[in-house]
Amino acid sequence: MKYVDKIYGEFEFSGVIEEIIKTNVFQRLKKIHQGGSIFLVNPKVNHTRFEHSIGVMLIIKKLGGSIEEQIAGLIHDISHTAFSHLIDYVLDIEGEDYHENRYGAVLKDSELNAVLEKYQMDRTVFMDIEKFKLLEYPLPYLSADRIDYTLRDMFQIGEISLENISWFINGLATFDHRIVLKSEDYGKWFQAKYNFLTAEYFEGEENVEINIIMKTIIKDCLEKGIIEEKDFFEDDFYLMDKINQKFNLMQWIVKIRGNGLKNKKLKTKKRIVNPEIIVHNQILKLSEVN
After folding, report:
1. What is the torsion angle, in degrees rounded to the nearest 10, for the CA atoms of residue 94, residue 191, residue 288 and residue 184?
2. Gap between the Cα atoms of 24 and 171, Å rounded
3. Of 102, 122, 133, 213, which sits 20 to 30 A from 108 (CA to CA)?
4. What is the span of the domain harbouring residue 182?
5. Can you give the CATH number for the domain in which 182 is found?
6. Rounded-to-integer distance, Cα 217 and Cα 202, Å
7. Over the stretch 169-184, which tens digit does the pLDDT of each residue have?
């Protein structure tokens, strides 16, 4: 199976990786936008959880991660709900972990498990993804998940180039099975880009505005019985179609924007990075260098 990743290039997938990608539970991620609601007002920000999940797996593979950790990277987002983190805003979940709490249930998908069993793998191996340190490692440190969404989001909004991405990927290394950087330059660059992404994109006016609007609309639709919470287990387009059966979603968005927002604040997860750097055969946090 040939796959072209827009930021990492062309790859061939086979075996268990190819078969997992072809399952319905994974293909569903093509219809879930990485940035949640923002594509409704900024169509160029239209990358998906499908692209991100494969990207995470590719970083893990490049760094020598086991096939189990590559699979964990591939499937870590299979439980994401429609519009990604919108459900967290609707239900006021500060940790933005609604999808994480249903991961175990989605991991039981029969088609996915048939593939794992074919390759003599036990799904329980993937229950605790935090044990895979290349995939998930706590803030403020680096992880394949954190790296991919930063590079992918920043590329999508036009803030970094393919050359920047290639340069940075070459600066990745591992220590004690976690991701570190080869020099201070890589650390400073990534920290600056991550800070920009957090302040100007995640917490930027356009993103905050559409998420507040969609939070208002979704709450109204839930109260009126137009949609149910379980509809979030489908995908962005399913949820939009269900709303559009009763109301014109885009007209609703335009109307709320035109009336002005009463509350322009949105609680989002606080994110700060302090990457680990190799300095004279020592591992130091960027803040500890010099």
Report:
1. 160
2. 35
3. 133
4. 2-288
5. 1.10.3210.10
6. 20
7. 999 999 999 999 999 9
